[in-house]
């Protein structure tokens, strides 16, 4: 799966670019348990971060990104220089990207 992921990275990059062209991006993180993750116990949580656009007339995109953390660094990295509106919940981890870009939250 890792080798396959490396082969489709150009497609993922293109989808990320298309997502960042959207006026509104939805983002949320969901805890997942990874049983054999290096450096973590099986009871610890990791996160699947989901980004989506809902403007079907433009180019609907849904991207999933795995991260071992719920840190604010993940939305900072995933959203890059995105400018627009970010639909998220009240989790404070989104605040840095909203202020830094600046985004309408």
Domain tally? 1
* Total strands: 4
Q: Which overall shape is indicated by the principal axes computed on the Cα atoms?
A: globular
Any idea what the radius of gyration is? 14 Å
Estimated share of beta-strand residues: 15-25%
Residue share in helix: 25-40%
- Which residues form runs of ≥5 with pLDDT under 50? none
Q: Determine the structural class based on helices, strands and strand pairing.
A: alpha+beta
Sheet bearing the most strands, described? 4 strands, mixed
Q: Count helical runs.
A: 4
Structure notes:
There is one protein chain. The chain has a four-stranded mixed β-sheet, covered by helices on one side. The radius of gyration is 14 Å and the shape is globular. The protein has 105 residues and is α+β, with helices and mostly antiparallel strands. The chain is built from four helices and four strands, in the order ααβββαβα. The protein has one domain. It has helices at 2-7, 9-20, 73-79, 95-100, and strands at 24-32, 46-52, 62-67, 85-87.
Brief write-up:
With 105 residues, the protein is an alpha+beta fold.
Label this structure with key terms:
single chain, 105 residues, alpha+beta, 30% helix, globular
Write the layout of secondary structure elements.
Elements: H1 2-7, H2 9-20, E1 24-32, E2 46-52, E3 62-67, H3 73-79, E4 85-87, H4 95-100
Parallel strand pairs: 1-4
Antiparallel strand pairs: 1-2, 2-3
């Amino acid at each position: 799966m890792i080798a396959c992921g490396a082969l489709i990275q150009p497609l993922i990059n293109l989808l990320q670019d298309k997502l960042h062209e959207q006026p509104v991006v939805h983002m949320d993180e969901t805890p997942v348990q990874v049983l054999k993750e290096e450096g973590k116990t099986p009871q610890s949580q990791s996160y699947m971060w989901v980004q989506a656009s809902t403007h079907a007339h433009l180019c609907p995109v849904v991207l999933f990104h795995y991260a071992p953390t719920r840190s604010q660094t993940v939305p900072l990295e995933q959203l890059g220089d995105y400018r627009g509106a970010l639909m998220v919940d009240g989790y404070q981890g989104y605040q840095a990207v909203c202020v830094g870009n600046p985004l309408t939250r």
